[in-house]
């Protein structure tokens, strides 16, 4: 995503990233889950070391003899053990949103896309890691709501005054962000 704020927080469903990517899924099948996790973590570590953001990766299950939480520089790795990774990602993302942090959730699971958080599909995130560029959140640009209102006014669905309402345009942009991530709509 271009430039992130200093208080940005990434919450990554690591198991989802592995299972939605052919190369990582192949590593998991051939060499096991630990090898696939390590391959993903190496890529994320490289990205997180060049970022001011906080990064958390959550994996389903656990590792024998390992702690529930592990730190590697700016990267936090969590193992879900008795809960699902989805539950932990949702809980952590909601907590970050509650304190006003820019929140980025990485998962292809639509249930993890929260209002107010930027959604990055697992496949896009992995491809961005390989390209060594910052992940791009799927979000509507600020003018999307205003353009929608103008379109509706042209067709007589809303009046001109409503079409010029900046607050309504911003609210619609937020709704477009939530319901129609850029990766699923054109433009």
What can you tell me about this protein's structure?
- The chain is an alpha/beta fold and about 190 residues long.
- It folds into two domains: about 10-130, 5'-nuclease (Rossmann fold); about 145-185.
- It is about 45% helix and about 15% strand.
- It has eight helices and six strands.
- The chain has helices at about 15-20, 20-30, 35-50, 85-100, 120-130, 145-155, 160-165, 165-180, and strands at about 10-15, 55-60, 70, 75-80, 105, 120.
- Strands 3-4-2-1-5-6 form a six-stranded mixed β-sheet, with helices on both faces.
- It is elongated, with a radius of gyration of 19 Å.
- The protein starts with 8 loop residues before the first strand and ends in an 8-residue tail after the last helix.
* CATH domain class name of the largest domain: Alpha Beta
Number of helical regions: 8
Strand content: 5-15%
CATH architecture field of the largest domain: 3-Layer(aba) Sandwich
**Assembly type of the shown chains?**
single chain
């Amino acid at each position: 995503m271009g430039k992130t704020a200093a208080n940005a927080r990434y919450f990554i469903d690591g198991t989802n990233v592995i299972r939605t990517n052919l190369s990582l899924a192949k590593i998991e099948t051939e060499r096991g889950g630990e090898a696939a996790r390590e391959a993903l973590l190496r890529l994320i570590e490289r990205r997180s070391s060049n970022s001011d953001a906080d990064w958390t990766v959550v994996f389903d299950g656990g590792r024998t003899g390992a702690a529930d939480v592990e730190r590697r520089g700016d990267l936090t790795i969590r193992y879900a053990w008795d809960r699902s990774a989805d539950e932990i990602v949702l809980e952590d993302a909601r907590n970050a949103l509650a304190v006003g942090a820019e929140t980025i959730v990485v998962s292809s699971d639509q249930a993890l896309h929260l209002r107010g958080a930027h959604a990055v599909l697992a496949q896009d995130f992995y491809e961005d890691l390989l390209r060594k560029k910052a992940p791009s959140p799927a979000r509507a640009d600020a003018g999307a709501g205003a353009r929608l209102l103008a379109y509706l006014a042209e067709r007589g669905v809303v009046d001109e005054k409503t079409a010029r309402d900046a607050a309504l345009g911003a609210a619609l942009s937020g709704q477009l962000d939530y319901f129609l991530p850029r990766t699923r709509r054109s433009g």
